[in-house]
Design a protein that fits this description.
mainly beta; 9 strands; OMP/PagP_B-barrel
């Protein structure tokens, strides 16, 4: 039976967690429909931090930040090349539910600023390149499994910069 307040599980009030991961399944299409050519989209690199704020029933509400980077390149048949880079900075909040002493399940929402830069390299006249920044929402579910008391692995499914993230997690 689960306790009425989660005070001795894998994520408790006052815990701080750092995730370092890679993400796949970019939600950006980088104008692929208009560009054509041969695409190459890199996995996203992401770093997130979260702190347990207060208990809610059997779980804990946490808040934190996420930073991510992803790039894409399109080699065009004409010999030109488009390069894209995305940087995401987001605030996130999540509800953590105690499943097992070493497994932290959570779901949450986020909002962030997505900065995208496009550049063109080629021998033909340069099409319009530039950059943009837009507010972007996020929703996610995930889990952390602690192999040791303060070191584990995590995975997240969601909608922000990528659809799937996996990596290492540390608790302090």
């Amino acid at each position: 039976m689960l306790p009425t307040t989660f005070t001795n599980g894998p994520f408790v009030v006052g815990n701080q967690v750092l995730n370092l991961g890679i993400g796949v399944g970019s939600r950006g299409n980088y104008d692929a429909d208009n560009i054509g050519g041969s695409p190459s989209v890199s996995p996203a690199i992401n770093l997130s931090y979260e702190r347990g704020l207060f208990a809610i029933g059997p779980g804990v509400l946490g808040a934190g930040v996420l930073a991510g980077y992803q790039g894409a390149t399109y080699n065009l048949n004409s010999g030109g090349k488009w390069k894209y880079s995305d940087v995401l900075l987001a605030l996130r909040g999540a509800f953590h539910y105690p499943v097992l002493p070493e497994f932290d399940a959570y779901a949450g929402l986020g909002v962030g600023l997505l900065y995208t830069k496009a550049s063109y390299e080629g021998s033909t006249a340069s099409p319009e390149a530039g950059s943009s920044a837009k507010l972007t929402p996020g929703i996610f579910v995930g889990g952390r499994y602690f192999l040791l008391e303060n070191l584990g692995v995590f995975t997240e499914l969601g909608y922000d910069q990528t659809y799937l993230k996996v990596g290492l997690t540390g608790k302090f």
